[in-house]
Amino acid sequence: MDSIQIEQLSKELIKLETVLGIIGIVLVNRNGLTIISRVPRTINEKKIGALAATMFEAMETAIEELNEEIINITVEYDEYQLVVMGATNQVILVALIEYNIDLGITLIEVEESISIIQDLMRDDKNVDK
């Protein structure tokens, strides 16, 4: 990923942060390493990324026999919800969402951002060729 692509991804995360109920966003690779993070200082982005990647990979392995894809994994904490979604084959999006928020509209916004992120990642692959 080049600096222009990182900047474009960062702008998309900043835009997503303005959605009602979203506390923060982290993009991680499948190994759990942070690509871009927009979370409050009180939240450890490295731990959240590692947790999300581990959960996502474990769930994919567990449902492999069903021939289904994971839409999202949601974990509820005392103060917020952690929503984990596959953005691309190599990137996972982690959204921290307020606990008492209606997830429906928020998830629609997150899915729209994932579509944009996929386009940005696809553009990067085309540039490398």
Order of helices and strands: HEEHEEEH
Strand content: 15-25%
CATH architecture: 2-Layer Sandwich
Number of helices: 3
CATH superfamily: Dynein light chain 2a, cytoplasmic
Low-confidence stretches: none
Radius of gyration: 14 Å
Distance between the first and last residues' Cα? 13 Å
Q: Tell me the major beta sheet.
A: 5 strands, antiparallel
Structural class: alpha+beta
Helix content: 40-55%
Q: CATH class, anyone?
A: Alpha Beta
- Average pLDDT taken over every residue: 88
How many individual β-strands?
A: 5
Widest sheet, order of strands? 2-1-5-4-3
Q: Examine the coordinates and then state which fold CATH places here, giving the name of the CATH topology.
A: Beta-Lactamase
How many domains in all?
1
The backbone outline, from C-alpha atoms, is globular
Outline of the structure:
The mean pLDDT is 88.
Structure description:
Helix content is 46%, strand content 25%. With 129 residues, it is of the alpha+beta class. A hairpin with a 4-residue loop joins strand 1 (22-29) and strand 2 (34-38). It has helices at residues 3-17, 45-62, 103-128, and strands spanning 22-29, 34-38, 73-76, 80-86, 91-98. The radius of gyration is 14 Å and the shape is globular. The longest helix has 26 residues, at 103-128. The protein has a 5-stranded antiparallel sheet with strand order 2-1-5-4-3, sandwiched between helices. It has one domain (3-128): Dynein light chain 2a, cytoplasmic (Beta-Lactamase, 2-Layer Sandwich), CATH 3.30.450. The protein contains 3 helices and 5 strands; from the N terminus they run αββαβββα.
